[in-house]
Amino acid sequence: MRLGVEAALVDGRLVRGDVEVNDGLVARYGIRRGNGRRGLAAPGFVDLQVNGFGGVDFATADAAAYERAGEALLETGVTAYLPTFITAPEEALVAALREVPRATPGPRVLGAHVEGPFLAAARMGTHLLEGRRDPDVALLERLLAAGPVRLVTLAPELPGALELIDVLGSHGVAVSCGHTEATAEEAEAAFDRGALTVTHLFNAMRPFRHRDPGIAGAALVRDDVIVQLILDGHHVAPETALLVWRAAGGRLALVTDAMAGAAQGDGRYRLGDVEVEVRGGSARSAEDVLAGSVLTMDQAVRNLHALGVPLAEALGAATAVPARVVGADVGSLRRGGPADVVVLDDNLEVARVLVGGEERVAA
Ligand code: ZN
């Protein structure tokens, strides 16, 4: 099947010509023959942090709810994601992890992102303090046994956190630093130990100061660290996003941190144990703390491009870079690779979506 597109994003650059998909795989690209081609084929988007979507809160979702959320995610171009569970009591996390589907008809579920409970008490954001725990290898092992954990966010300055990084590494689970008071020095120690990314840079962490750059400063100057950003117009200012881009272009991963209200509209929703009100494009708890977002990944790409970031690189931040965090074979179009494709129109709106070559959102 030819997609009928004008160009495709391959290896981080735009290649003119159509794309052919056969047997679920990308067969060819750069096909110059044929008229009337429209749109750009990009790899399907990869989202490392999705708490919920389309009215579904993954903390309490069953298989049917995952399917509903998956359909809504596909509409936004996401073809692979990590359902994300914020800090909660062990029983709740175990129950949520057991429900993570290994195969779904929707976007690929790459495994769970467990954001907590080993976080800094002073940087919980909207996470409930009652669920917070100091690093505890036995608890971590029980969580890993409960479901397919792929990414864990922890505060690396906590006593015993570096041992957790070792344990996660030995299980092949990626480590992200977040909800943290870590100084630059403590952050460097965690990166040296194997943590390779930072969760929602600047949000819920020690602030950057000129003589105390903290984990944000350490991450921005380290070429081997991927920084994640929620680019919804509420979590960081445009100047902050540009600063991050200029320091860390090519290792910036867009995440949505979406919660149940995403793709739903204003109203009241749950984010785990937290009640959240969505109004005017932001999601806030009763204490008026940002509680996830209602951002969609296609909008995040448009937002990054609108800041002046070249399109190919803005798309990379939603595809190849997040895929690198979890080492998944997604986020790129290559001959013989899985045909997870989002076709974008001239306004960068999602026109079509394919997962494994199967058309899931049609023009
Ligand atoms: Zn968070």
How would you characterize this protein structure?
The protein is α/β, with parallel strands linked by helices. It has two domains: 1-42 and 331-363, Roll (Urease, subunit C, domain 1), CATH 2.30.40; 45-329, Metal-dependent hydrolases (TIM Barrel), CATH 3.20.20. It is 26% helix and 28% strand. The chain has ten helices and 23 strands. The protein has helices at residues 63-75, 90-98, 137-146, 161-170, 184-193, 214-221, 238-248, 297-306, 311-316, 320-326; strands at residues 7-10, 13-16, 18-22, 25-31, 40-43, 45-50, 52-53, 56-57, 78-86, 108-109, 112-115, 149-154, 174-177, 197-198, 226-230, 252-255, 267-271, 274-279, 282-285, 290-293, 341-344, 350-355, 358-361. Strands 6, 9, 10, 11, 12, 13, 14, 15 and 16 form a nine-stranded parallel β-sheet that branches. Helix 2 (90-98) packs parallel to helix 3 and helix 5 packs across helix 6. It starts with 6 loop residues before the first strand and ends with a strand. The relative contact order is 0.17. The model has no long low-confidence stretch (mean pLDDT 96). The structure holds zinc ion. The site of zinc ion has 7 residues, from loops.
Summary, kept brief:
The chain is built from 10 helices and 23 strands.
How much strand content do the residues show? 25-35%
Largest sheet: 9 strands, parallel
Name the shape in a single word.
Answer: globular
SS-based class:
alpha/beta
Compute the CA-based radius of gyration.
19 Å
**What CATH first level of the largest domain would be assigned?**
Alpha Beta
Distance between the termini: 15 Å
Proportion of helical residues: 25-40%
Q: Quickly give the CATH architecture of the largest domain.
A: Alpha-Beta Barrel
- How many individual helices? 10
